[in-house]
Specification:
The complex is a heterodimer.
Chain A (H helix, E strand, L loop, with lengths): L1 H17 L11 E4 L2 E4 H13 L11 H10 L1 H6 L1 E4 L3 H6 L9 E3 H10 L1 H8 L8 H21 L6 E5 L2 H6 L6 E4 H7 L4 H9 L7 H17 L35 H19 L2 H16 L8 H13 L1 H21 L4 H29 L7 H23 L3 H24 L12 H34 L4 H36 L8 H21 L5 H25 L12 H31 L1
Antiparallel strand pairs in A: 1-2, 3-4, 5-6
Chain B lengths: L1 H7 L2 H25 L1 H9 L3 E4 L3 E4 L1 H18 L9 H23 L1 E8 L3 E17 L7 E6 L8 E2 L7 E8 L2 E5 L15 E5 L12 E7 L7 E6 L6 E5 L2 E27 L6 E12 L2 E8 L4 E3 L2 E11 L2 E10 L4 H25 L4 H4 L1
Antiparallel strand pairs in B: 1-2, 3-4, 3-18, 4-5, 4-13, 6-7, 7-10, 8-9, 10-11, 12-13, 13-14, 14-15, 16-17, 17-18
Classes of the chains: A mainly alpha, B alpha+beta.
Chain lengths: 621, 374
């Protein structure tokens, strides 16, 4: 039976990578953003996430990449789309927007309100960040989002076919056909052919102008108008020239100033222009040929060429939503485990549940591995990644427990904690799923790999220990007479606590060593350090209280549950304090969730504890 | 005697002290939000007595950890059934913990930290302490030879009287302000006030959360000089015009400044480099290329984030930088720490002990559900 499972897992695992070996698509266009080269797809998703709160426009069935190109090719219509998510009634009121249940507003609506209040913006902007109120922060955020939205809208306006040439004489001279729309870049390139005509037009009186002359004037006006978009440099799609040592990529507008271009820069610009004109006409053939040109342009880059396969992989990860699949499997595992309890501990249902847990873990692992591969760094470096990794650790622990016990206890812990951590992760995705770069002190792979991974392992095992504490108390309430079962869970509890102590202690000390290496002190009583220390001390205290007989097993179980609260405080709570060198994870609105969680754990922990004791007491009497 | 050992080494004491330490850690962490890291560390962790709310005296972090250390030492030395091969893991673990506490103690007592600011092309052998100040009095009467007299922070407390054979007068400290600002007087000062205090007064400010942003100040009285220079003087950190006084035909300068340590070697900054993640404002790395000059012989060293320079018990870290119109300057953090190797050793020992214990006990602790096993 086990072998069949293994074979199934491995075949799925091997199948996964073949899914992204497809053609070069517009999603894969390399773009430099936040310090690294990423596919345009990731960029578009992150932008949409910042404006809209989600990575695609679900109700219109519009993906992020399509949204960004629709916006570029049709700025008027794009400005009408309701993509600004404003959830603060104070902000909507001050922008004179109507408070609706969707909380979604269009750029055109938002910009009207903003234009009236530029003084307010500059006042908020000049305040130090920590003294800004929530309203002021959100107002500024909307302002900067609107600026960026506008910049993105016009960042390819030099390459988009926005200018129609109807006159046949002009069309011939401009190397196009009448009635066809061409781009600013094309016209600028061809313009020398019109210099003579232009000079005569200049000197002609108004009434003598021919049709061609009038159109020429119109074109000139449009060109002048378009050239004022050159501030829009959001999309850094063009690789730097081989002479540039900084490695800074350029936006198409930056190359419109007449500077010399490397051959590959020209190729990419032309392919992009071609793609835009094909897309505007809806002509698949032109688009496909443009994509081929684009790929050729990328391959021709001489210095710092991005790896197209990695780009493809990343877009695939974006699309595949591995963690969503993983969470679905965890939930299925949980449902089947529940069913197995209903049907008298059915072995088959339990095995199906185990299968789903395994599949969930597989996708979970695969997602983490791909992220490591794309970023070239250890699994945990942002708060989001730590959540995903702790979820992974808890499931692995649970699988090990299940392997030893074979009674569904591990399945319960794994399915539940795996799903819960994925949900927490989705909440943090906006802060950390964007695959961003790290600040200098974190940029040391060895210490990230050792300290951060160990300490997050410790968090994960501590959480598992807490879950087993819950289970122990529940078991005591359900069946206080079953001493053998209680004893075996009790032993598991203690064993896992020792493992948790090992990882938290070792991780904390490694953190101290890292701090000693980079800041010159082993221990600085920084909030994050104190949080980790608290977890360790709590473990040590519980173990000593147990050994000295100060607590009974149920008290020990309660202690483990309380340690989950400490883990959550150390993990998420310290970022609320905003002091110390460790506050790298930005969190907003976390305080309420943390409070709710603590209250819930306190109530269920102490509730079940006293209930279990009363059951036991009755038994003795 | 046995009874005493049994009580002192009791694990109950450990449980109580660790609970109390946890309380202190929570309080000390929460307090950082209001009073900052340094002040909270002073109040909760480095103190023997912590005054809760300023009124209730409770044991501070230092005394708590000392109790823990004594308890642990007695436990390791005198507990009979610990010295058995069966408990080898537990024993090793406790010895590791003991070393960690001892190392912490050494660091707390002997370590010092400060920073060095070096401009590109310049060299320095001076470390300015982060936290401690010194009162420096310079006798400038002899043109070719300045005579320095320096009083360190611990004796700058209120009410202390300072005297030295170099000085033909006494100094009585009237007040020491952790953070202050000079304010121009609106009304004329009393006749006791001399020097800067004639026109200014030092107003005490609430200390900043970050200790390095505080501007300490001091007011003191010069007595027994037998001249008209007796009176009340004031100084503050970073004063642009030094306080001078002529006492018995000797010229003196008074300065309050960060406590200085002079190293037996010098560091010259050749080049400071800052690399950003391309196209962003996020720094990827800072580094300083320096010459370590000892006995006139330079040695080239690159100091980077996470790659400090270690020499003669000092460790130099890339801490910060200053960008000015005349060029760049690097800020190196200089740390001297005698207990430095303890955490390394003790963590290895503790991990080995815990692993031994785990390996021995895990098979017992991870058991099959007895019902399934049947």
């Amino acid at each position: 039976m086990m072998k069949l499972y293994l074979r199934l897992f491995f075949s799925i695992f091997l199948l996964l990578p073949s899914l992204y070996g497809r053609d070069f698509e517009v999603r894969n266009f390399p773009i430099q953003d936040e310090g690294r080269i990423k596919p345009l797809d990731t960029y578009a998703r992150n932008q949409l996430l910042a404006f809209y709160g989600k990575r695609s426009l679900k109700h219109e069935n519009l993906s992020a990449i399509d949204w960004i190109f629709d916006l570029i090719l049709n700025p008027e219509k794009g400005g009408e789309k309701k993509v600004f998510n404003i959830r603060n009634p104070e902000v909507t009121a001050s922008l004179r927007l109507e408070w609706t249940n969707e909380h979604k507003y269009s750029f055109n609506e938002v910009i009207l309100g903003l234009k009236e209040q530029l003084e307010l913006v500059s006042e908020f902007y000049n305040k130090p960040d920590e003294s800004r109120t929530i309203f002021e922060k959100q107002f500024l955020e909307i302002y900067f989002n609107a600026l960026r939205f506008k910049e993105i809208t016009y960042s390819l306006s030099c390459l988009a076919p926005f200018i129609e040439v109807n006159d046949s004489l002009l069309a011939e001279k401009l190397n196009t056909s009448p009635g066809k729309a061409v781009s600013y870049a094309h016209l600028v390139k061809q313009f020398h052919t019109l210099t003579e005509m232009f000079l005569t037009v200049m000197n002609k009186p108004e009434e003598e102008l021919s049709q061609s002359d009038k159109e020429l004037n119109m074109i000139l006006l449009t060109l002048q108008h378009t050239s004022s978009d050159d501030y829009a440099q959001a999309l850094k799609l063009i690789p730097p020239s081989p002479l540039d040592e900084t490695g800074t990529w350029l936006s198409p507008w930056e190359l419109m100033d007449g500077r010399p271009r490397a051959p590959y820069q020209d190729k990419i610009l032309n392919a992009l222009e071609k793609y835009l004109s094909g897309r505007a006409l809806g002509d698949e053939n032109i688009m496909n040929s443009a994509l081929t040109d684009y790929e050729a342009g990328i391959s021709a880059i001489t210095i710092g060429k991005p790896d197209i396969n990695i780009l493809k992989k990343e877009t695939w990860v974006n699309k595949a939503n591995l963690f969503y699949i993983s969470v679905a499997f965890y939930l299925s595992a949980f449902i089947f485990l529940g069913l197995s309890w209903m049907f008298h501990q059915s072995k088959y249902l339990q095995r199906i549940s185990a299968g789903f847990l395994g599949l969930g873990l597989l996708y979970h692992t695969y997602g983490i591995c791909l992220r490591m591969f794309i970023m070239g760094r250890p699994p945990v470096s942002t708060l989001y990644e730590s959540v995903i990794f702790v979820g992974f650790v808890t499931v692995v622990c649970a699988v090990i427990i299940e392997y030893f016990r074979r009674d569904g206890l591990g399945l319960f812990v794994g399915a539940l904690s795996g799903a819960i951590f994925h949900y927490i992760g989705f909440g943090y995705a906006a802060d950390g799923d964007t695959l961003g770069m790290l600040v200098a002190v974190l940029n040391s792979n060895f210490w990230l790999a050792t300290h951060v991974t160990t300490i997050t392992l410790g968090y994960g095992v501590t959480v598992v220990a807490g879950f087993i504490g819950h289970l122990y108390l529940i078991q005591m309430i359900r069946n206080p007479k079953n001493n053998t079962l209680l004893k075996s869970i009790n032993k598991n509890m203690f064993g896992i606590t020792l493992i948790a102590l090992f990882f938290t202690l070792f991780g904390t000390i490694l953190g101290g060593i890292w701090a000693d290496q980079s800041w010159g002190r082993f221990w600085g009583w920084d909030p994050k350090e104190n949080g980790a220390l608290l977890i360790v001390m709590w473990h040590v205290m519980m173990i000593h209280m147990r050994i000295t007989g100060k607590v009974k097993p149920e008290g020990f179980a309660l202690g483990l549950i309380m340690n989950i609260i400490i883990v959550m405080m150390a993990w998420f709570g310290v970022n609320l304090l905003n002091v110390g060198l460790h506050s790298y994870g930005f969190t907003s609105g976390i305080a309420r969730n943390l409070f709710l969680f603590t209250a819930l754990e306190l109530i269920t922990g102490f509730g079940t504890y006293y209930w279990a004791q009363s059951r036991k007491g009755r038994l003795v009497v | 005697m046995k009874q005493i050992i049994k009580i002192v080494s009791s694990p109950k004491i450990f449980v109580y002290t660790i609970i109390w330490l946890m309380v202190l850690v929570v309080l000390g962490t929460l307090a950082q939000r209001d009073i900052g890291l340094y002040a909270s560390q002073q109040k909760y962790f480095s103190a023997n007595i912590t005054w809760l709310g300023g009124i209730i005296p409770v044991p501070g972090g230092r005394i708590t950890m000392i109790i823990m250390l004594v308890n642990l030492t007695f436990m390791v030395l005198f507990k009979q059934n610990l010295w058995k091969i069966k408990k080898i893991g537990v024993l090793i673990m406790h010895i590791g913990a003991l070393l960690l506490l001892i190392g912490g103690g050494l660091t707390a007592i002997f370590s010092s930290e400060g920073n060095m600011v070096i401009e590109e092309g310049a060299q320095s052998n001076r470390v300015d302490d982060y936290h401690d100040m010194e009162l420096t009095i310079i006798n400038t009467s002899n043109e070719s030879l300045d005579k320095y007299t320096v009083f360190d922070q611990p004796i700058l407390g209120k009410g202390n009287i300072l005297s030295h054979e170099n000085l033909n007068f006494n100094i009585e400290i009237i007040s020491y302000l952790r953070n202050c600002e000079p304010l121009k007087r609106t009304a004329p000062a009393g006749i006791h006030y001399k020097g800067m205090l004639k026109n200014f007064m030092l107003r005490s400010l609430r200390p900043e959360k970050e200790n390095s942003r505080n501007r300490p100040g001091i007011t003191y009285r010069i007595t027994n000089s037998g001249s008209s220079s007796d009176g009340i003087y004031g100084l503050f950190l970073g004063q642009s015009v030094p306080q001078t006084a002529v006492i018995n035909n000797q010229n003196y300068e008074f300065i309050i400044r960060r406590k200085r340590t002079y190293l037996p070697f010098a560091i010259e900054l050749l080049d400071f480099k800052k690399v950003m993640h391309t196209g962003t404002g996020i720094a990827k790395s800072y580094s300083s290329e320096v010459n370590l000059i000892e006995n006139g012989i330079p040695r080239r060293v690159l100091i980077e984030m996470n790659e400090p320079l270690r020499h003669k018990g000092y460790t130099f870290f890339q801490s910060s930088f200053i960008e000015g119109p005349e060029g760049e300057a690097t800020v190196l953090a200089a740390v001297k720490n005698y207990g430095r190797s303890f955490p390394y050793i003790s963590s290895i020992i503790m991990s080995i002990g815990l692993l031994l214990h785990l390996l021995k006990n895990i098979p017992k602790l991870l058991q099959k559900n007895p019902r399934v096993a049947e």
